[in-house]
Design goal:
By secondary structure, the chain is mostly helical. The chain is built from 8 helices and no strands.
Length: about 180
């Protein structure tokens, strides 16, 4: 069975591309020109988004290297522990809304220290799957379409991340115990 799945997965993407090309050709679409036009739009979007991404990465770098994250973790650790959230995952919880790659690094560090099958590792994994890189996503998507005022989107997204964190802790506590 594994061999069949490997064969199917090897041909799935090339087959999909071939089917799209044939379908477009049969419907009279100039597939190559459409592809080139889409690539131009993608490049334009990437150029428009680049300043927002650079600003976000610089802000994240300053936040981490200045020690501000460590200060924030030490300030809120007593509160989060009192509501049942392990303080060890706070760096992940703080960094996750800002940067996917930085939060992946923190997740790997948590795995190295506590192990992926530990309670901390399981909560951290569940948090990674149930939260989003809010600031990165907002800067990229809103920057691409030129929206400067994010209004209520940020607060709604932060509330959704908080719900994801709380659900992660509750589900892992119920399923895996402490």
């Amino acid at each position: 069975m594994a061999g069949v799945i490997n064969i199917i997965s090897s041909f799935a993407i090339p087959a999909f591309i071939f089917i799209v090309l044939i379908y477009g050709h049969l419907n009279g679409v100039n597939v190559y020109d459409s592809f080139v036009e889409g690539a131009k739009e993608g490049l334009t979007t990437a150029v428009k988004v680049l300043p927002y991404m650079v600003a976000m990465f610089v802000a994240i770098g300053i936040f981490r290297t200045s020690g501000a994250m460590d200060i924030l973790v030490s300030l809120i650790s007593p509160f989060v522990e009192s509501v049942g959230i392990p303080a060890q995952i706070l760096p992940l919880v703080i960094m996750r809304p800002m940067s996917g790659s930085a939060s992946m690094g923190i997740l790997a560090e948590l795995f190295k220290v506590y192990g992926p099958d530990s309670f901390i590792g399981r909560i951290a994994s569940t948090v990674m799957g149930s939260t989003e890189t809010i600031f990165y996503t907002l800067s990229v998507y809103f920057g691409a379409v030129g929206i400067k005022r994010i209004r209520h989107t940020l607060w709604a997204a932060l509330l959704a991340d908080l719900a994801g964190l709380m659900a992660s802790v509750m589900v892992c506590s119920i399923v895996f115990g402490r």
